[in-house]
Design goal:
One of its GO terms (molecular function) is helicase activity. The chain is elongated. The strands form 5 sheets. Strands 3, 21, 22, 23, 24, 25 and 26 form a 7-stranded mixed beta sheet that branches. It has a 7-stranded parallel beta sheet with strand order 6-7-5-8-9-4-10, sandwiched between helices. The protein contains 31 helices and 26 strands. It is about 40% helix and about 15% strand.
Length: about 900
């Protein structure tokens, strides 16, 4: 087939029955190849089988299609099978010109897939040719991998560490953003003065903004957000640019920030009334609903009666008490910390350094003896030259990053231990710290009750079949915990992943551990984002409480999400009952965060005053002489903080009730989805085809009670083309939740695609030895008169026009027709009768010579002028139906942006001819 992007001198060719990987360029100009037109040959009447293999060929041909003709052009070539609810944002986007959406579904629902679907669809339609994803830098590699694996989009990451290298690959004067069609870009990089104008000048026509709430603008939100928002505002000014905003928390109680995001979608939204409730604002709500999709798990769990399994979740808090020697060390460290922050005559800068050093020491001591010792031995807040900084803003910024948990929306978590030493190395204060460090290390030998509790819990989880991830705050803690568990748990693989490893090394190590039968992963928060772990791990243990409750969701969200292989997820939170730092964080942040999530069904970030509140409360801790717990609820600052958090949750609740997705009704999705599955084949078709093909190839497949199938990869006399399948998927199932050592097959799985292409290619190239036969004669009681079934492949030129631009893509569709001849006239059967022919039983034999004669007669009829005219008319009719489907999907946007025409370049290809003969009646 000559593809539409060809020119007179350079042809892009794809083999009939081939896939996109087999596209070849041929130079046909002067001195080049001699290329001749060819017609698709009718099947050889001699290449029949005894039992007929019509259905095998039908399914192979359907499953091999990668350029479907239907209104969802992308679904045939994805590396993932979208859930029905994930098509809702796609339908919403297609009904806009340009697409402007805020996708605000809950964590773990699949917002990345929803945004990627829109990009892939517009690319396959030819409406866009370039795209960019703007995201926090630590999420860039995850986006690159998701785009590649699930959508076949090869993007490059433009980050501070890669931008210069990518520039060197550009032509003189060429921008990185012009050189590469698909980019994943750090938003904080392109908002800077160095890159801002370059990106705005060369920005692609399609932009996804991940973690969009981190760019919202509002009162008191800081200069960083202001710069990000200005950049997005400039991008949104282009009336032709598609803009997809992605966030799990669009509102969070901040009305001005929420409205700033809405204004990016439509400037008119700036004038929406503050209160959108009531009948008088129904038109405004409807207008907004066309741009906003926001659903929780409960909304999509049974969407279109197709179960989307999320794991059941069980949470528990586990407390421990300090060993007496650990408690004594805690008292002495508290005494030191209290003294260190109240040194008379100190400069303000040095006082702030002492403050952060004291907090870092207390946090490390609550984590582990090893983290405490490392902190006690480390110099506090030194600059690169070893000097203490004097800029108060810098001191507080570095201190917050080392001690608190950094803003999870914009930067990767840090896991380095802070320093506690402020004095010179030979001072009495430093010597005192080093003695405390020695005492801390001595506690690691059997006097760490927290580690003992963890060991018991991990052993129990592994025995119950769970694979836990233990999250720690510091590298020193993670490495010590991993080493201890590895020594205690026999027959269990244990490894640690921390910030010492590069992102690629982390992925490799997690992959190696996931291959082990019993496994435990110990990690710092460097893994709380960027890698989804639901197929390899099923429990989360918070060994150290995060000081930013958003980290709870990020840690748990690695495993508690769609696609979790286990039906149940365990979440354990460990805290020190007599550790007032732990109890403070638990009462003020962790429990309230979880209460809001349980009540609302989604998480609301803590108010921005959280860090200031911690400053106040931790100052009170350092002012007390003993380790007794404080009661935070008694403080006015905590009460005010609680009110703001509750107000934010209430605002989010009202927002969700007002803006529940109602722009696309389930019936609309169901109708389009049914049409796509009928045309391209679904998981059921994949199952029928794979089992039929394996059986035809002589492969022994054993079904199991749990719904899986087993095939021995060592079976002899198996055709070479089936060996890859057996080696890669000795145990497989069709659809459902991924599970260990079982390959989940669906329509777009590479093994299914390879098998379909192989079977179809054999049928076209080697009909005598092919598994699927292009012709067949079947004796059956299911018909009363000779019935002929035709398997057709339509090829369409799908031409799009927008402004002065015109483009063309190739589309394919399988079609089955059947007819009977009565009194010399052809009668075409209705579609519902045609479908039943493929399932009729074979109930009698037909002489080989008779088969060949009948098939030759059928072939002669196909070549007749009347039949060719009928098939051409069928192709035109199908083209008109497909155009109507495209216009139906586009809805009100049809004709406003891109317009389409669907034309068949000629009559359809006849892939197969099958005759069904009635059982002769006895005289």
């Amino acid at each position: 087939m000559v593809l539409p992007d060809s020119t007179e001198e350079f042809l892009l060719l794809k083999p009939l029955g081939g896939n996109d990987a087999e596209v070849t360029g041929v130079f046909a100009g002067p001195g080049g190849e001699e290329v001749q037109s060819a017609a698709f040959a009718l099947p050889d009447p001699r290449g029949f089988s005894n039992a007929g293999r019509a259905k095998l060929l039908v399914n192979a041909a359907k499953l091999a299609i990668r350029s479907g003709a239907g209104p969802f052009r992308s679904l045939a070539r994805l590396g993932v099978e979208p859930r029905p609810y994930q098509l809702v944002p796609l339908l919403m986007a297609l009904r806009q010109t340009p697409a402007r959406l805020l996708i605000a579904d809950d964590v773990g629902v699949g917002k990345t897939i929803e945004a990627g679907l829109i990009a892939r669809e517009l690319l396959d339609r030819g409406e866009i040719s370039r795209m960019a994803v703007l995201c926090p830098p630590h999420l860039a590699e995850q986006w690159v991998e998701e785009l590649r694996a699930k959508f076949g989009i090869d993007a490059v990451a433009v980050l501070p560490g890669t931008a210069r290298r990518l520039e060197r690959g550009c032509n003189p004067g060429q921008s990185v953003f012009d050189r590469y069609r698909f980019v994943v870009v750090s938003l904080d990089l392109v908002k800077s003065d160095r890159w801002r104008q370059d990106f705005l000048t060369n920005a692609p026509e399609f932009v996804i903004v991940d973690e969009a709430h981190a760019s919202a603008e509002g009162e008191g939100m800081g200069s960083k957000r202001h710069q990000r928002y200005r950049l997005l505002e400039e991008l949104a000014k282009d009336p032709e640019r598609h803009l997809i905003l992605v966030t799990a928390t669009p509102h969070s109680g901040k009305e001005d920030a929420f409205r700033s995001l809405l204004k990016l979608l439509n400037p008119d939204f700036a004038n929406l009334p503050l209160d959108l409730s009531g009948a008088q604002n129904e038109a405004a709500r409807r207008s907004l609903a066309r741009h906003l999709v926001q659903r929780g798990r409960a909304d999509i769990q049974d969407y279109l009666r197709e179960d989307t399994p999320f794991p059941k979740r069980h949470d528990a808090e586990l407390k421990y008490t300090l060993h007496p020697e650990y408690a004594a060390l805690f008292d002495d460290v508290l005494a030191y910390a209290r003294e260190s922050v109240h040194v008379p005559g100190e400069t303000l800068g040095r006082t702030r350094i002492r403050w952060w050093a004291a907090l870092g020491l207390l946090r490390a001591l609550a984590s582990s003896p090893q983290a405490a010792a490392a902190t006690l031995k480390e110099r506090a807040l030194t600059a690169e030259g070893g000097e203490e900084p004097t800029d108060l803003t810098l001191i507080d910024a570095v201190g917050r990053e080392q001690v608190y948990d950094p803003d999870a929306e914009t930067s990767e978590a840090t896991d380095l231990t802070p320093g506690a030493q402020v004095e010179a190395p030979d001072t009495e204060a430093t010597r005192r710290l080093l003695k405390l460090a020695d005492r801390a290390l001595a506690l690691a030998d059997g006097k760490d009750n927290k580690l003992g509790l963890l060991t018991t819990q991990v052993r129990d989880l592994v025995k119950q079949g769970f694979a836990p991830i233990v999250f720690c705050r510091f590298i020193a803690t993670a490495e010590a915990v991993a080493a201890h568990l590895a020594g205690e748990l026999k027959g269990v693989a244990v490894d640690a992943v921390t910030g010492r490893l590069t992102p690629d090394e982390r992925v490799t190590k997690v992959g190696e551990l996931a291959a082990q039968e019993k496994r435990v992963l110990v990690a710092t928060d460097c893994l709380s984002e960027g890698i989804n772990l639901q197929q390899a791990f099923s429990a989360v243990i918070h060994y150290d409480l995060p000081w930013n409750p958003t980290r709870l969701d990020q840690r748990e969200g690695r495993v508690d999400r769609y696609g979790q292989a286990s039906g149940e997820v365990r979440v354990l939170t460990i805290y020190g009952e007599d550790n007032r730092i732990d109890t403070l964080i638990l009462d003020v942040l962790v429990r309230k965060h979880r209460l809001i999530r349980a009540t609302l069904g989604t998480s609301i970030p803590a108010p921005e005053e959280a860090e200031s509140l911690l400053d106040v409360l931790l100052a009170k801790v350092l002012d007390m002489d003993t380790r007794q717990a404080i009661q935070p609820s008694l403080f006015a600052e905590v009460q005010d903080f609680d009110v703001k958090w509750r107000d934010a949750a209430e605002g989010e609740k009202k927002s969700r009730s007002r803006f529940a997705q109602n722009a696309i009704q389930p019936g609309e999705v169901a109708g389009e989805l049914a049409a796509v599955r009928s045309a391209l084949g679904d998981t059921k078709a994949a199952q029928e085809f794979v089992l039929d093909a394996l059986q035809g190839a002589g492969v022994i497949v054993s079904p199991r009670m749990d719904g899986t199938f087993q095939a021995n990869p060592g079976q002899a006399d198996v055709r070479a083309e089936f060996r890859d399948f057996l080696e890669q998927a000795p145990s497989f199932r069709f659809g459902g939740t991924p599970e260990r050592n079982v390959t989940v097959l669906a329509r777009n799985h590479p093994l299914v695609e390879q098998l379909a292409s192989t079977v179809l290619g054999q049928a076209l190239d080697d009909p005598q030895h092919a598994l699927a036969k292009r012709v067949g004669v079947i004796r059956t009681s299911g018909v009363s008169v000779v019935t002929t079934l035709l398997l057709l492949r339509h090829r369409f030129h799908l031409t799009g026009r927008k402004g002065n631009r015109t483009w063309q893509t190739l589309a394919e569709e399988l079609d089955t027709l059947a007819y009977v001849r009565r009194a010399g006239q052809i009668e075409w059967l209705p579609a519902e009768q045609v479908q039943t022919l493929l399932d009729l039983p074979v109930e009698g034999n037909v002489d080989a010579a008779d088969k060949e004669t009948r098939l030759r007669t059928a072939a002669e009829l196909l070549q007749s002028e009347d039949m060719q005219a009928a098939l051409s008319e069928r192709a035109r009719a199908r083209g008109a139906e497909l155009l109507a489907a495209h216009e139906r999907v586009r809805g009100a946007a049809s004709g406003q942006g891109a317009t389409y025409s669907v034309e068949p370049p000629g009559p359809p290809d006849v892939l197969g001819v099958y005759l069904f003969l009635p059982i002769p009646k006895l005289s």
